[in-house]
Specification:
- With 237 residues, the protein is of the alpha+beta class.
- It has 2 domains: 140 residues, Jelly Rolls (Sandwich), CATH 2.60.120; 75 residues, Winged helix-like DNA-binding domain superfamily/Winged helix DNA-binding domain (Arc Repressor Mutant, subunit A).
- Strand 5 and strand 6 form a beta hairpin.
- Helix 3 crosses helix 4, helix 5 packs across helix 6 and helix 6 packs across helix 7.
- The longest helix has 25 residues.
- The mean pLDDT is 89.
Amino acid sequence: MRENNYDCQTCENSNCLIKKHIANGSIQTYLQQKNTFNCNQGQQFILEGAPVNGLYFIYSGAVKVYRQTASKESQIIRFSKNGEIVGHRGFGTDYVYNISASALKDTILCNFSSSVLIEMLHKAPSLMFDFMLFYADQLQKSEANSKLFIQMSVRERVINGLLFIENKFGQTDGYINMTLSRRDIAEFAGTSTDQVIRVISALKKEGLLIAKGKKLGIPDLNKFAAQLQQSSYFLEG
């Protein structure tokens, strides 16, 4: 990773918790202690089991967060984009990360070390409160997902995964703005690559999905979502 400097003051990610509190004078000193890196597509920047090195905020780009299952397979638990936090599951409680993360495309990452972030949170109660709400929201989603996910068929898991990806990254010219391998979709949907290929093929024949190479598009989101028993459900890690 190449280190660069990107000013929080000029950042356009209004959803970033740090940016939200940028006017708070008590955090200004800590902003100067931020490290920013360019991470190339496919490059891993968090390794499961490695010592925690604070939190990462996505300045621009896209990231997949994954972990190793008991059977030594990879399971993608989240996709993240601009302004979102990566590495929060290890912050404040563990000495090692319990997830891995790598860039889905060329990505710029902002990193605050654990010691800097903890000190900043103590100095800015409003920022700490927003972090508490963020963690509470993540816990609620995780518990809800655990119950719903096990009730889904393979087809529903793939549909749900594609809905989440579309909801996260949007579509342009009829195709989702993130091109993922069938293996990535399988690891997110909790199934095999062969099963994903079969489900995608069936969805294309039914007119629910279109494809151009690895690119996928959903012509009618409402009709596609109606394939799920829980039509408003998106998997979130």
